Amino acid sequence: MSTTVRFDDPRATTAVGVVEILSADMSPVSAVPLVGTGVAVHSLEPGRYLAMAHLVDGPRTSVMFTVPDDLEVVVPVPASAGPPPKYATGWASVWSGADEVPIKWTRTEEGIDFLPHQDRAGHSALQYALGDDATRFTMLLPAAAVRPRLDPDVGYVLEPASDAAAIMRFLRRGDLPSAGTLARKPPDTADPATVLAVGYYRQHVSEPKALYEWFGPLETVIPRDVCDLWLLNAWFNLTTSTDSERARQSLLNAADLGPPVFAAGLRIFDDALRVLTYRDRDGALEKARVKLTPYRHAAFDTAVLTTFWGHDPLSPTLEPVNPSPDTPPSRYRFPIAVEGHDLHAG
Amino acid sequence: MTIKESSNGAGPGIHALVVGAAIYDHLTQPRAPAPARRLLDDLAQLPPLTVPGPSADAISQWLEKAGAQSVETLWPGSATSSEFVTAFDQWRRRCDSHPENVALFFFCGHGWSAPEQLLLFEDLGSRPEALASACVDVADMRAAMRGCAATTQVFFIDACRRMPPEITRIVTDQTVPLGGTRPQLPLSPIDSFTYFSTPLGSVAHGTTGQATAYTRAVVRMLDGLGARRDPNGDWTVRNGRFGADLQDVLAWYRDDGDPEQKVSVHCADSPGDGVLRRLDQPPTVPVRVVCEPPQALGRISRAQAHAADDPGQPCTDLPGGAGEIRVGIYKLDMTFQEDSGYRDVDGLHAAGTPTSTWQILVGSR
């Protein structure tokens, strides 16, 4: 028998959380992603259950229901996970290395897909200013749409317009079961951000065998000049090989391409570096550390994608710097606007 | 420093190292190099710390009551970096005695982020030319513990996480060395979580002379609110959802006017299945009734919860619609004052961990 859990969040085009089904004695029965306007929970035996909704950053809510009486359960999920973005206008510009470059972008249903410049490896970033926020940089993953989220502390930040955002934010909150429910559902292997987030999940929960199996999809959709791929590879080697040189070489490769697209990669880099250099000196790794440490210092703590203030993507800073939000656009900058939860360009 | 060891025998259990650092006597250093002087001056201008002692006391007492195998505590006045190095070494050895041990570390005191968390010990400033020599890097601790046999490790950090601009000019790789050797490869799986009381770049909070809200929430979580029922029926507190639940508990017990606190979690390469505690019986959890319309809450004359599947169990009064109750399914009977105009209600509700809110739609007579 199938029970439908309905909830009300018009913004839930991607996962906003997870519904956990508990039996009357509070034993776990099932967990399903909260996406769309409702989800079906299959094969529940007759009896009483509790549907508990875990939102990415909203309050936890729960509803009792009885099978087979209540074939449809309404979970009173609040209208949105986090404060909704307000109307705001601003500008954006894509950088490759230390230079602004002509912008290529496509509009998708979820947000905007900025196509980073491919001439220079690993350093494509979007600079943007929305509303009154100081300008900031966010690292871009090619062919992965981004959308804005209004962070109460730092203003607008861009995050993947896919389940990748929820997976990474559950991991950051320390809710591994909810992240796992999303990461284990049949992933959208066409979306590079989701594929990468699943890789991070498998690293995060110490599943080296599962991570190894995921390198196929990762290497298919993530360009080899993306730092994150090498960071995951470095950690995989640390947990599977007695030869530290493999992990060391992956870390060196990563630092040459850095910073990572996902901020979680900066922490993996630091953890791996500390393991390899514990009570030891390594000149090459020290140089690698010098390359990525400024991003460790500057990256916004609450952002999924590596986001920071700075003069350009190669010079992250701890404090906001000019250009101010109302800086006249250069020839490569173009106007953007936030309307509701969507990001518009052009 | 005090060490209390359990008389439970030599089996696996919790081995705790608790630090309350509060008496910083070396913060005034007019001849210190400029960056160090500014960092010290910032701390010297803060009111004296009064929360680390009560916080260390609260967590130590709970650990002893809960039967921890060992609890080593550095109290205010003895929380120097040299005392810590000795204590850390002994703690690591105790944790190393069994793979099923839980290594639990708790710190309350001053902190900086660089951006890895630095714990500031009470001799901070005694060597102003080497300020970091009184700072312990939490990431170094985690790396040092990677080689320890205890497969479940938790670090509770209740300290500020601001990043003063001068911090990058302090040589952070000259922080307190923690001994040990490089972890052997391949790294063996462990469950290692760090729970910070505040996000990167933010300050930690406390009320003068009391254990902090974060500390009290950690104790409540370990005491049972962090427990979930395993498929085999046991109630266990595990790392997997501890961070998200800790945030709920902090918010639940937050008093009006208290600053909002956001827990920050660091976990990597950790499955989250490490058992911090196994309960002897199902936990008792706080429940709260929320009425629609809200003003109905103030007109409740009686609210009683009856165990739905155990009629023999005595009912629990929830005065004002709030109270504590053992986890389970309950039938809530609620009556309103005669002159309120609200109709009495009843219905089934679940009390689950870590907290439960029962939403009641109240009709008019």
Could you walk me through the main structural features you see in this protein, from its secondary elements to its overall organization?
The complex is a heterodimer of chains A (346) and B (365). Chain A has 346 residues and is of the alpha+beta class. Chain A contains eight helices and 19 strands. Chain A has helices at 163-173, 176-184, 192-204, 208-221, 227-240, 244-257, 264-276, 283-298, and strands spanning 2-7, 17-23, 28-34, 38-42, 47-55, 61-67, 72-75, 88-96, 99-101, 104-107, 112-115, 124-130, 136-139, 146-151, 155-160, 307-310, 316-317, 334-339, 342-345. In chain A, strands 8, 9, 12, 13, 16, 17, 18 and 19 form an eight-stranded antiparallel β-sheet that branches. Chain A has a four-stranded antiparallel β-sheet with strand order 3-2-5-6. Chain A has a three-stranded mixed β-sheet with strand order 4-1-7, with no helix packed on it. The longest helix of chain A is centred in the C-terminal third of the chain and has 16 residues, at 283-298. Chain B is 20% helix and 29% strand. Chain B is globular, with a radius of gyration of 23 Å. In chain B, helix 2 (52-65) runs parallel beside helix 5 and helix 5 (213-225) crosses helix 6. The chains are: A alpha+beta (346), B alpha/beta (365). At the A-B interface, strand 5, strand 6, helix 1, helix 2 and helix 5 of A face helix 4, helix 6, strand 12, strand 19 and strand 20 of B.
